[in-house]
Structures are given as structure tokens and as C-alpha cells.
Amino acid sequence: MTPTLLVTGGAGFIGAQVVAHALAAGWRVRVLDSLRPDVHAAGATFDADVELVRADMTDVDAAARAVSGVDAVCHQAAKVGLGVDLGDAPDYVRSNDLGTAVLVSAMARAGVDRLVLASSMVVYGEGRYRDALGEIPAPARTPADLAAGRFDPFSPRTGEPLVPLLIDESAPLDPRNVYAASKVAQEHLVRAWARETGGRAALLRYHNVYGPGMPHGTPYAGVASLFRSALQAERAPTVLEDGRQRRDFVHVSDVASANLAAIEWTAAAGSGAARGFNVASGEVHTVGEMATALADAWGGPAPVVTRGYRLGDVRHVTASAQRLRDELGWRARVGFAEGMREFARAPLRARAAS
Predict the structure, then answer these.
(1) Which of 233-247, 255-269, 311-325 has the lowest mean pLDDT?
(2) In terms of CB atoms within 10 Å, which of 25, 138, 246, 334 comes out highest?
(3) Would you state the pLDDT for residue 102?
(4) Preceding peptide of 347 cis, ω within 30°
């Protein structure tokens, strides 16, 4: 019998790619998505073979219907991005944490024991650092330092800027904004489900995902979307801080293939396993480099570095994806230069309702 995969948030930017990859791999696919108008301005279309359960993640009855008879769940549904201000906090907690609690509760009742969670690099807070004396956690950046243009975190031992390193999955979780706190809570809920039910879960910590179909011009979609939306409007991308923030930009098709690899991993994992995996390209680039690559591929205008800042942002966070390569046999296929050339002209998702 053909196995069935439930993809929550399957109409979204990443979820839609997961659905397409799963169909190509031979899965039957069911989607649970509310099609929120602030996310899906133009609605959504699905392959004829995809079954849609249209409901909010917090709908207990809908979650029960959605998990009934499935072999595995790929949980992509979430409110993403840094947000506008603390007024967004209730929606983050409701959408991400209550929604995940409803899902794992439904899975426990239905006996579904395989889960892939879309987590995020934001669970780490600031990345991994060292000073002249060795590794050291980065202290929080203060408003005074940011206002003065001191963007790099400083060592409390030496007074010098810290040197960023690649972070791996053994790093402590240190959320530094509401979205990050909600993603950590999702991970804890999934770990609790795995321990209590014997389920198997892969926690995929996405780094900066970009690619065709990104949402257009929304503060929740991430910096790649903001830059691309500006270029489409013939405006210069505006880069915060000094543009030297280090990130790992990973193409959405690679993220989708990582989800399929993780689903297969859950089939062989031991009872109660819940393991984190960084999903990253392995290439370190700065935000300024990304803005320049997109602008060059579009044909201008050149980015403008504003030296502005947002208090919830972190300075550097780049990942080691070695665990994912070693244990799941996955590696990114789309390089930075190729991906940015494609993304510069790729269609974006229609602008969502305000």
C-alpha cells in the first residue's frame, strides 16, 4: 500500500516544495492548511492527488481528521520571521506552540509515530564564538552598542570583538526573540511527545531559506524576500547594520529534499528518538553579499547599507551541516551563486493581505 504523508502548512513556501518532492518520491499526500489570507493572498492550488484539510492548526477535530490513517507527518505550519513588535507574540504562541501541541496530541491518539518538525536556526540565538582565550557564549548586544555602530558582540574577557564559528547541534538553545522562543517550545513539545509515545522525530533547524515562491514584501518572510521585493519595485535593497552579518543561505529545493531524507530517517530511528539537524548549505556569506548578488543579477540598483538595526536580530549564525550529511546522506545541491541568479528572476508569491 502506498504510504501517506501529512504536510501541515503544505500551501506555504517550504511546505509546497515538500509536497511536490513527496509526490515525486511516491507518497500519497494530505495537506492541513488554514490558507490564512495574511499568508495566501491568492489562495492555493494543489495537485489533483493531494487531499486538503482546510483548517487552523489549533482545531482539535480537524487535526484528528488530518492525522487519521497517515504514516508520517511533516510539520511545516508556523508563523515565521522576527515579526513587527511584541503585539505579534500571542499569534506566534498560538500558531506555533498551541498548534504543535494540538498536532502531537492528535498523533498520540491516532498512533502515528513519525514526525519531522520544521524548526529554525533562531533556536541558537547568537551563533558560536571564540575570543583569544577560547570558546565563549556571546553576550546579548545592547541598544547602546547597536546605536553606536558596535554591531559585533564583544568578549567580556578581552574587550575585543568575538570571532564567529560554525555552530553544531550540540550548542545550547538560547532564543532571543518571540519567534525564536516559539520554535524552542515546539522542539520541547515534540521531544515530550517522542519520550511519552515512543515516536521518532527529526527536528530540522533551517538556516536562511530562499527561492522561487517566497512571499512578496512582508516583514515575516525574511531578508531574502525583502531584498527581492525591493528590486522588483525598482528600489535599492536596504541592508541593516553594516551588512557583514554572517548567514547560511539554503535553497528551498534543498530544504525540501532534507525533509524527505528526514522522513526516511524516522522510519529507522529508535523508539523515542528526537534528534536535531541543521539544514544549511555549508557556505558562509554575509547579508551584504547576498543583497549585492541579487542586485547584480537583477541589474541594479545597488544595495544601500543603512547601519540601522533591530533589537531582536542576532549578529552571526552559521551552521555545520555535518550531522545531516553523515547520518541522512543529504547535502545541498544548489550553490550560492547559482541560487541567487535564479532567485533574482524567479516569481514570488502574491502579496498577502495587510
Answers:
(1) 311-325
(2) 138
(3) 98
(4) no
Alpha-carbon dihedral sign for residues 14, 15, 19, 22: positive
- Cell numbers 535564479 correspond to 342
Helices (H), 74-205: 89-92, 99-110, 143-147, 178-197
Residue 134 CA to residue 292 CA, distance in Å, equals 33
Q: Find out whether 306 and 240 touch, Cβ atoms under 8 Å.
A: yes
- Strands 163-167 and 128-131, by their bridges, are antiparallel
Residue 207 in grid coordinates: 538556516
The CA–CA distances, whole Å, from 223 to 110, 135, 171, 312, 332 equal 39, 29, 24, 14, 20
- Exposed, middle or buried by CB within 10 Å (0-12, 13-18, 19+), for 322? middle
Residue 306: all three cell numbers together:
543603512
| 16 touches 42 (CB < 8 A) | no
Give the separation between CA 164 and CA 122, rounded to whole angstroms: 16
Whether residue 221 is predicted with pLDDT greater than 70 in this model: the reply is: no
Sequence-separated (6 or more) residues with CB below 8 Å from residue 188: none
Collapsing DSSP states into helix, strand and coil, what is residue 305? strand
Span 294-317, pLDDT tens digits: 999 999 999 999 999 988 788 999
* 2 DSSP 8-state letter: -
Burial 185-197 (b: 16+ CB within 10 A, else e): bbbebbbebbeeb
Q: Is 166 helix (H, G, I), strand (E, B) or coil?
A: strand
Tell which residue, 304, 170, 224, has the closest CA to residue 13: 224
CA dihedral 188, 190, 191, 194 (to 10 degrees): 160
Q: Which of 224, 259, 282 is nearest to 81 (CA)?
A: 224
Taking residues 255-279, report their average pLDDT: 98
Identify the three-state secondary structure at position 107.
Answer: helix
* Residue type, position 244, single letter: R
3-state secondary structure of 282: coil
Residue 149 pLDDT grade (very low, low, confident, very high; cuts 50, 70, 90) = very high
Residues taking part in catalysis = 179
Q: Is the pTM of this model over 0.90?
A: yes
Number of other residues whose CB lies within 10 A of the CB of residue 44: 17
